[in-house]
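tokens incoming
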């Protein structure tokens, strides 16, 4: 996804932001959950700039929610990366999958009904 003047001004690229914000990859290649303020500090920007860039790069919350990509699974993969495995290299494949995942319109009513049925099965057994 293309850049913007804002991204250029702060020297932030889409992949780097994805790694830091969504995957929790630290500057030294480690893992730590980072909220928007921590990511902003890392890049020398404000939280508002980071939020705008997430939208500009099409990886804000709305896009994630309506994507067929399983972000939680990707986050666990990065968090649990074995010793000696580069999280950044792992992230390259994850980022490719994210970018190629189709967008979908979510049927919230159907999801809630399905979850309610599943909860009934699980919790009514007591």
């Amino acid at each position: 996804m293309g850049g913007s003047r804002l991204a250029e001004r702060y020297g932030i690229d889409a992949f780097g932001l994805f790694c830091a914000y969504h995957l929790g990859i630290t500057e030294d290649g480690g893992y730590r959950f980072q909220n928007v303020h921590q990511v902003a500090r890392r890049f020398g920007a404000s939280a508002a700039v980071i939020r705008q860039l997430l939208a500009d790069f099409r990886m804000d919350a709305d896009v994630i929610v309506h994507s067929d990509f399983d972000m939680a699974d990707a986050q666990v993969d990065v968090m649990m990366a074995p010793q000696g495995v580069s999280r950044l290299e792992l992230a390259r494949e994850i980022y490719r999958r994210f970018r190629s995942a189709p967008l979908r319109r979510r049927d919230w009513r159907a999801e809630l009904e399905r979850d309610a049925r599943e909860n009934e099965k699980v919790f009514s057994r007591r």
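note: The radius of gyration is 17 Å.
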